[in-house]
Specification:
Layout (H helix, E strand, L loop, with lengths): L1 H13 L11 E6 L3 E10 L7 E10 L7 E2 L2 E2 L10 E6 L4 E10 L2 E10 L10 E12 L4 E11 L5 H6 L5
Parallel strand pairs: 5-10
Antiparallel strand pairs: 1-2, 2-3, 3-4, 3-6, 6-7, 7-8, 8-9, 9-10
Length: 169
C-alpha cells in the first residue's frame, strides 16, 4: 500500500499541465550584440488545473565587469518596478497567455500575448491582446527594464499565432 502511495505521488508530481509555452522549464539564453538575456521558466504546481508557469528575466550587458540584472516589466519608463515575472496560463486545449523574446532592429523586445474574454476562453468574442516591451537601460537608476511600448488587439488569432507573427510597432 505504501509503495502504491509513493507511485501515485510520483505520477502526480511528474504530470505537469499540458501547455504549449515558448520557454520550457529551466533557463533559455538569448545572446545579442548588447548582452545576454536569460529567460528562467518554472512551474507553480497546484496539482490541479490551476497550475501555471512563470518567466523571469535576467540581463547581463556586454563588458568585462557587467553584472546580471533582474529585469522588471514596466507599464511606463518612470514606473516603480513591481512585476518581475510573467505568468503563463492555459486551458487543456490552448494557451491563454504566453511571451516571446525577439531580437529586431538591434534591440531586444519582449512580446506578451493574452486571450481576453467575457465569460470563458471559448467565447465567440474572445480576442488576443499583444503587449510589446523594449529592453532599455535606465541611466538614472543604472538598471535594465522592459518598458511597455505598445498594446494592440490582434483579433481572433490564438496566443500562439500572435506570438509567431513578426513584431510590429
Amino acid at each position: 500500500m505504501k509503495t502504491l502511495s509513493y507511485l501515485l505521488l510520483a505520477a502526480a508530481i511528474a504530470a505537469a499541465p499540458a501547455q504549449a509555452q515558448q520557454y520550457k522549464p529551466g533557463t533559455a539564453t538569448i545572446a545579442s550584440a548588447q548582452g545576454t538575456l536569460r529567460v528562467n521558466s518554472g512551474l507553480v504546481n497546484h496539482f490541479n488545473a490551476h497550475s501555471f508557469y512563470v518567466y523571469s528575466f535576467q540581463w547581463q550587458p556586454q563588458g568585462k565587469d557587467a553584472v546580471w540584472n533582474q529585469v522588471p516589466l514596466l507599464a511606463k519608463p518612470d514606473a516603480v518596478p513591481s512585476e518581475f515575472v510573467f505568468k503563463t496560463t492555459a486551458t487543456a486545449d490552448f494557451p491563454l497567455s504566453d511571451a516571446r523574446v525577439v531580437q529586431a532592429g538591434g534591440k531586444t523586445w519582449l512580446s506578451t500575448a493574452q486571450l481576453k474574454y467575457e465569460d470563458t476562453p471559448y467565447d465567440d468574442n474572445a480576442s488576443v491582446e499583444v503587449k510589446r516591451y523594449e529592453l532599455v537601460r535606465q541611466p538614472d537608476e543604472d538598471r535594465w527594464v522592459f518598458v511597455l511600448r505598445s498594446t494592440r488587439n490582434v483579433g481572433k488569432k490564438t496566443v500562439t499565432q500572435a506570438l509567431a507573427a513578426p513584431p510590429s510597432p
